[in-house]
Amino acid sequence: MDIKKLGLISTVAMLSVTVSLGGCDILKSPEELKTEKIARLNRIHEEKRSKFREAQAKQNEAERKRDELSDRLDKEYGSVLNYQDNEEYNKRCKEFREANEEADKAFGEFCKSVDKVSPYRPQHEFDTRN
C-alpha cells in the first residue's frame, strides 16, 4: 500500500469514529441542534441564576444589618454633633461603617452576577438572532 491510501484510510477511520461517538453534527437536523443549544443555554442560565440568587441574598442580609445599625444609632444618639467624642458612639459608628462596606461589597458581587446571567437569558423560540 502506498502512503496516499494509508492517509485516506486513516482519515476515513477517524471520521467514522468521530461520527459514531456523536462528536460530529453532520447527521443531526437543524431542529435537533437548536433544541440542544437551547437546553444547554437554559442549563447555563439556571446555574448562573443560582449564583445570582445567592449574591442577592447576601446583599439583602448586609443591607438589613446596615439599616438596623443605622436605625439603632439614630434612636440612641439622635444628633451626631452631641456625641462625636463619645467612645461608645464611635465604636458603634465603626460597626456601622463596616456593615456599610460589607453591603457595598455584596452589592458589587450582585452586579457581577447580574452581568454573568444576562447573556444566558432564554430568548423567545422564534427569535432569529441566534
From TrEMBL:
Top-rank taxon: Bacteria
Region of interest called Disordered, as start-end residue ranges on this chain: 50-69
Protein name: Lipoprotein
Organism: Candidatus Liberibacter solanacearum
